[in-house]
Design goal:
This protein is about 20% helix and about 30% strand. The chain has about 350 residues and is α+β, with helices and mostly antiparallel strands. The protein has three domains: about 70 residues, RNA-binding S4 domain (Structural Genomics Hypothetical 15.5 Kd Protein In mrcA-pckA Intergenic Region, Chain A), CATH 3.10.290; about 120 residues, Alpha-Beta Plaits, CATH 3.30.70; about 150 residues, Pseudouridine synthase (2-Layer Sandwich), CATH 3.30.2350.10. The longest helix has 14 residues. The protein is globular and about 65 Å long.
């Protein structure tokens, strides 16, 4: 494929992986195909492709960035040029998608998504420099042109807890932020989480009204009142082990700590949970899992693209620590761990 050539994906190629498509359509070897993707030299539908696992759909348009181009650039509305930087430093955030309007990131556990209101109140305080770095901070630096250059503006749209890993989307301009934020308010966003629980979780729909203090100082379920928030979580049991389970939670609403609260109050708290690990006025459920953090991962996210309305989805397979924990549970139970995308 000549540099910069625009090639559409044919109907018979629907569902093909991007490396296979490059190899078949343009005679590239497997190593060459993956190298081009790794160096951000391939664009799909005007967005720099980040993953070698990208699946193509009929009608997608694939472009190879010429080798003479230094760094693929994405022109963000009102923000000038934002690079999809292939020379990101070791330990940089893993980007799942980047275009003119949104950036999708695979957040590691142990990293705060963005500052809360209390932190922002400290912006003029001399102690601000001691606040921990957030995903928001790291991403702005990673998307900048380099040391000394202006940092791009970002609009956070949702938050994952510090210990929760997985898919996060941020907007690159106010119009995109308004569009996606409205989707969150309308509950049209698709969000699924993987979790490892103590005890065998019961599949089904959990609905309650969440309050800031259920009676013991913790957030939790209470009576419906003007200050309560309706919360609905759908739980699917993927695999049961000996005293533990692997579940998928689909959010119908997105309240603070919703999954953690619902699972804890159901008697099957997440492994590593130390706050929502008990029923009201009850002792904590024992945790012998050995999980060093809350075993919750934002597995996939679906939104309508703010520019063209097209439904888009991104997945993040669970991280190494949760994979090891699940493998251990399966081994102890004498079963084979299920394999899911």
């Amino acid at each position: 494929m000549a540099g910069g050539a625009d090639a559409p994906v044919r109907a018979e190629e629907n569902g093909w992986g991007l490396p296979r498509w490059l190899e078949t359509r343009h005679g590239l070897g497997p190593r060459r195909s993956r190298d081009l993707i790794a160096r951000h030299k391939i664009m799909v539908n005007d967005a720099v492709c980040i993953e070698t696992t990208r699946r193509l759909q009929a009608g997608d348009r694939v472009v190879m960035i010429p080798e003479t181009a230094s760094v693929p650039m994405v022109k963000a509305k009102r923000r000038g040029l934002i690079p999809a930087n292939p020379e990101a430093p070791r330990g940089a955030l893993r980007l799942l998608h980047l275009d003119d309007d949104i950036v999708v990131v695979d957040k590691p556990a142990g990293l705060t998504t963005h500052r809360n209101t209390a932190d922002l109140a400290e912006k003029h305080n001399r102690n601000k420099k001691y606040l921990p770095t957030t995903l928001f901070d790291l991403l702005r630096r990673q998307l900048s042109d380099g040391p000394g250059s202006p940092l791009p503006r970002l609009w956070p749209l949702h938050r994952l807890d510090n210990e929760t890993s997985g898919v996060v989307v941020l907007a690159l301009n106010p119009d995109a932020a308004k569009s996606v934020a409205q989707q969150f308010r309308d509950h049209t966003i698709g969000r699924r989480y993987w979790g490892l629980t103590r005890g065998i979780a019961k599949p089904g729909r959990i609905a309650s009204h969440l309050v800031t203090d259920r009676g013991d100082g913790r957030r939790g379920s209470g009576e419906e009142c003007p200050d309560s928030r309706h919360a609905v979580t759908h739980v699917r049991l993927i695999q049961a082990f000996d005293g533990f389970s692997w579940i998928e939670c689909q959010l119908e609403t997105g309240r603070t700590h919703q999954i953690r609260i619902h699972l804890g109050e159901a008697g099957t708290p997440l492994c590593g949970e130390t706050i929502y690990d008990r029923r009201l006025h009850s002792a904590p459920y024992p945790d012998v899992s050995g999980s060093p953090r809350i075993a919750l991962h934002a597995h996939d996210l679906e939104i309508n693209h703010p520019q063209n309305g097209r439904r888009m989805a991104w997945k993040s397979h669970w991280p190494q620590d949760m994979q090891k924990l699940a493998n251990l549970f399966a081994k102890q139970a004498g079963v084979t761990l299920e394999k899911l995308d």
